[in-house]
Amino acid sequence: MASRPTLVSVAAQLGLSRQTVSNAINAPERVNPETLKRVREVIAASGYRPNAAARQLRTRRSRNLGFRLFPTVDGINGAIMDRFLHSLTENLQLHGYRMTLFAASSDRAEIDSYGELLETADLDGFILTGTHHGDERGRWLMEREVPFVAFGRPWSTDDSGCPYPWVDVDGRAGTAEATADLLGRGHRRIGFLGWPESSEVGANRRSGWEAALSGVLAPGELKSLSVGVPDGIRDGAAGALKLLANGATAIVCASDSLALGASEQLRTASPGVPPAVIGFDDTPVAAAVGMSSVAQPVEEAARHIVKIMRGLLEGPAERSEPAAHVLLAPRLVLRDSGGPLATPIAL
To answer: What does residue 278 show for φ and ψ, rounded to 5 degrees?
Structure first.
């Protein structure tokens, strides 16, 4: 039976010192790029795994991060967080990190969990989701100098001035692109089916629709063509009925769940005509039913979050550069969003 590869055997195979191989694993910025590539290739081929316990003693890091799981409100839109969590876990594992998942009923309960997990699980930091204006979680962690990265903006007046790092997806750009596509197909009275006004993410997505139509419809018309409802297929259908009553011929939605409900209403209103509806999140359900949707680059977001977190944990103790803020562009995935109108409207 072949012996398990060790740091010594890997170094001997490469003709390098143990310290060079150790640096390639723990401090790659200290190693020449060509040498680093050779070391990584041999490590991958040999199946060598660093001794996590020994590395923790040297670095005083557990390489373990905390992540709060939110309950799934909708099985359709919950798929987006499933994709994000899978990609995040995969990218962390590539760099020798793991996650401790925990549940909390509120932000206050999540903060209470921070203190407990930092003591009992020896976590190095946290990855936050579900950010909102006045979020106390970031303030609590900053006051205690606990490293963290947020998936989502702080939704303050000036997000660029936020003192902590965040990665987010530009929902405004996504709905603006979806609206522009429907305008190009001849639709003019394009409705927006979103969430209640308390949703900051929903307001951001609504603003893209509004901006795309600002030169096409009067403010009063825009108001009559915007409906906010809870996130769900039945609520989407009810919201679409209101939009149709106000003369909407096409609908841009804040989620795929709302879009599925809206699609059913448009099918009923115009039998035999593909519904001119575009969702958001590009879930597997949207792909399965052939519905257009705005795709979030959650895999790319996960890679950025891991990169930023590694910089916080593995970089120099004194950091003078500002916190990283990354806003990613979504992508419109066109399937069957209704095609052009039979009689295009002159804009």
So the answer is: -125, 125
> How does residue 274 score in pLDDT terms, banded at 50, 70 and 90?
confident
> Does position 112 have pLDDT exceeding 90, yes or no?
yes
DSSP labels for 236-296? HHHHHHHHHHTT-SEEEESSHHHHHHHHHHHHHHSTTS---EEEES--HHHHHHT-EEEEP
Q: Which of 254, 153, 162, 239 is nearest to 206 (CA)?
A: 254
* Domain boundary, last residue among 296, 322, 340: 296
Question: Are 307 and 292 in the same domain?
Answer: no
One domain for residues 124 and 192: no
Q: Which of 82, 85, 80 is nearest to 279 (CA)?
A: 80
If pLDDT is split at 50, 70 and 90, which confidence band does 59 have? very low
Contact predicate 172/292, CB 8 Å: no
**Is residue 118 in a domain?**
yes
- pTM metric for this prediction: 0.78
Whether the predicted pLDDT of 339 surpasses 60:
no
Nearest CA to 39 out of 71, 15, 63 is that of 15
Neighbours of 336 (CB within 10 A): 14
Quote helix, strand, coil % in the chain, to nearest 5: 50, 15, 35
Domain annotation covers residue 336: no
